[in-house]
Fold this sequence. Notes:
12 helices, single chain, mainly alpha, disordered N terminus, 1% strand, 72% helix
Amino acid sequence: MSTVPAASPRHANHALGLGLLLVVTCIWGSTFAVVKDAGGSLHPATLIFWRFVIGAICIVPLLLWRGGHAATAPEKPRKLWLDSLTLSCWMIAGYGSQTIALSNTSANRAAFITALNVVLVPTWQALAARQRLPGTLWAAVLLAVGGLALLSWEGGALVAGDGWALICAVTYAGFVLTLERTSSAHAALPFTLAQLAWVTLLALVWLLLARAPLLPAAASWGALLYLGAAATALTTLLQTLGQRWVSAAEASVIYALEPVSASIFSYFLLGERIFLRGWLGGALVVGATVLSQFRAGRPEVPQVHTQPTAEE
């Protein structure tokens, strides 16, 4: 009698890692609909401030449990805070522009435009190094432009929110490149908590300058708790675990599904619909994000992620 061989621990861990990253992608996709809905009653600065306060509170127990604070050498705290401040400036620019975008355009359209950061990162790298763009990257850029054209054609003329979503994609690309340069010098959890703390402080300054309400409406607390605990703290943990067993190239393909997830949540939570041209445009954008991770037929190993937060 034949027997079926048991799955090896390596294969089981790989499958678990893929599953965790799919959960992360679904949570990130849901935030577009949640932020758009909550943004109707919250100033962007108030939303970002409380999201990151909640996220930081959730990260502190993880940091204490892992003993991560001891991993940072005594002579490095100044560099830790300076590097995290630089990253946090990119982060709040991304969060602010995304939140403003969602008040002026549909959630699914904003998600597809924001996903262009995956194409912008290698493009930015090549231009900064004064290198010629490889053919696959040119093809990815053309696919992305074609996808945006189809999305715009279906949704009517470009609106201000689309521009803000594009700014979000650009600022997140800056965040990814800065993170790539700085992350190896710091332990993950202390570095994450420092970023959360800086974004909270910057959001508080924005809130005061804009004279926005400090306390959100009572009906907004559910959304804020979800964004802070699930979309910031939980995804940090799940992504850290998942990418132990999944390559960055595989992760990039999974993360490219985020705008698809966003469209599904936008349909069920907001009633937004995408028709044929929109799906074709979205498919081109997703195809561009995947293609941009390949160079000369071999997968590149990028820092990947389409939702601009401390999930890194």
